[in-house]
Amino acid sequence: MPELPEVETIARGLAKRVTGDVIDSVWLGSKPEPLKSPAPAIVGTLESARIAGVRRVGKHIVFDLQNGGRAHSTASPGSAAQGRRRTPDVRKSKTLADKSVRPTQDVAQWVVHLGMTGRMLVCKPGDPVEKHTHAIARLSSGRELRFVDPRRFGRLSVAHGFQAAGSEPLDVQLDRFVSLFRGRKTPIKSALLNQKLLSGVGNIYADESLFRAGVRPRRRAASLTREDLRRLYLAVQEVLKEAIALGGSSISDYVGADGEAGFFQLQHRVYGREGEPCLVCKTSIKRIVIAGRSSHYCPKCQK
Ligand SMILES: [Zn+2]
After folding, report:
1. Is 38 among the catalytic positions?
2. How far apart are CA 96 and CA 232, in angstroms?
3. How far is CA 12 from the centre of its chain?
4. Is 2 a catalytic residue?
5. CB atoms inside a 10 Å sphere around CB 37
6. Strand, coil or helix: 121
7. Distance between CA atoms of 55 and 111, rounded to whole angstroms?
8. Cβ–Cβ < 8 Å for 58, 200
9. pTM score
C-alpha cells in the first residue's frame, strides 16, 4: 500500500506533468466501488476544469481545479439566485455579490486515494487501456490521466475545500503534536496510526519512527514525556523526509504508463527485520501485534 512518502512522490510527479492542463472530458467505468462521489458530480466538476496544481494531503492526491465544472457552474448560480429572491433589495448588490462569490465557487478539488493497488497514470491516447481502468480524464494536451486499480480499494471523489481529518505530519508544530497524544490510553503505535490525529503515517514509518525515537510501540501514549514526544516528533519528520528524498529520484517510475516499477524503499532499521540483529546494539529485533498490525522494535534500544 502506498504510504505518505510514495503519495507525496506521486503527487509531485503528477504536478510536474499535468499542472496547467485542462480536462476536456471524463470517462468513468461501471464499477461503483472506486466512486466516492456520485458519477455525475465527478464528471461535472472535472470537465473543462484547469488543473491548477497537484498536491498531497495525508495519503490523498489532490488535484486543484479552476474554472471547471458544467455541473457546478450551472448549479451554483441557480442556488445563489434562489437565495437572493428571499431578500428584498438584493438587486442593487447583485453585481457585487456575483464578483465576491465566484472565486470560491470556481475552485474545487479532485481527490484520489490509491487504496492498496491504485495507480494514476499519465498516458498517450494510443496506449492500451489496462484492465481495471476505472476512470480516464482526457486532457487538452492530448494526454490522458488514467486511474487503474485491480483491488478497488482506491477512491475518487470531488470536493470543495478538501481537508484531511488529522494534522499533517510534516507541517504540524511540536506543541500541537504533543497535545495530540496527551491523555491517550492507547499504545503510542496505535495513536500514530490513528488518521484522525496524524494524517498519513502508516505501519512501516510508525515502526521506524518509534525506533529512532527510542520508544517502544506498546507504551501508552499518555506515558510519554514531552521529551519522548519531542524525539518522536523529530523522528517522524526525519523518516518521512528521508523516504521522500529517496523517492524523488525515481518519480517517473510511479506515474509512467508502464506503472509497474517498484517503490523505492527506505533502509528499514526494524520493520520486517524480526529475529535479525539491531543495527545499533545487535539485540534481536522483536515483532509483536498491536491492534492487528505487526510492530517491530529493539527491546534494548526502545524503552
Ligand atoms: Zn538495539
Report:
1. no
2. 50
3. 12
4. yes
5. 17
6. strand
7. 10
8. yes
9. 0.79
What's the DSSP call for residue 22? Answer: B
Specify whether the CB–CB gap between 210 and 189 falls below 8 A. Answer: yes
Q: pLDDT band for position 40 (50/70/90)?
A: very high
Instruction: With CA atoms as reference, report the closest residue to 170 among 229, 248, 236.
Output: 236
Q: In what order do the strands lie in the sheet with 144-148?
A: 23-28, 133-139, 144-148, 119-123
Model confidence at 259: pLDDT above 80: no
The catalytic residue among 2, 5, 34, 169 is: 2
Write down the catalytic residue from 50, 184, 287, 293: 293
Confidence grade of residue 212 (pLDDT, cut at 50, 70, 90): very high
Q: How far is the CA of 285 from the centre of ligand 1 (A)?
A: 8
Q: What is the DSSP string of 38-99?
A: -HHHHHHHHTT-EEEEEEEETTEEEEEEES--HHHHHHHHHHHHHHHHHSTTHHHHHHHHHH
Q: Which three cell numbers stand for residue 211?
A: 525506533
List 3, 8, 47, 208, catalytic entry = 3
Task: Provide the β-strand partners of residue 62.
Answer: 55, 111
Average pLDDT, the chain: 85
Grid cell digits, residue 27: 470517462
230 C-alpha to center of ligand 1: Å?
20
Please give the Cα distance from 94 to 144 (Å, whole number). 40
Ligand 1 ion: nearby residues, β-carbon < 5 Å: 278, 280-281, 283, 298, 300-301
Q: Flag whether pLDDT at 249 surpasses 90.
A: no
Question: Among this protein's residues, is 55 annotated catalytic?
Answer: no
Kindly state the average pLDDT of the residues 261-283: 84
